[in-house]
Amino acid sequence: xxxxxxxxxxxxxxxxxxxxxxxxxxxxxxxxxxxxxxxxxxxxxxxxxxxxxxxxxxxxxxxxxxxxxxxxxxxxxxxxxxxxxxxxxxxxxxxxxxxxxxxxxxxxxxxxxxxxxxxxxx
Length: 122
Prior knowledge:
Distance between the termini: 16 Å
Shape: globular
Largest sheet: 5 strands, parallel
Number of helices: 5
């Protein structure tokens, strides 16, 4: 079973994403801050991380750098979640280790398509 972590200070975004992604093949956990998410990653690294482009406690790029630096069996696929297309933010995130992005608000088809793309690229 794959593990996915949703990191967003919005409980609505976390709940919507969790509802869309939870399945017999995917377990979804939530974190509301970057620090909380990093602690959870150190305990058990998820396969996929969906992280808000505007975390309340740290820069998203810094979160990505720290997450990929945590020793783990496999490196997670990281997707940033941003409110509008911002090429410079996407490129900074990719340089830090992100695999892609999704625009929010998202719907079921959009989020599931991004996940299919991430898994195909992995």
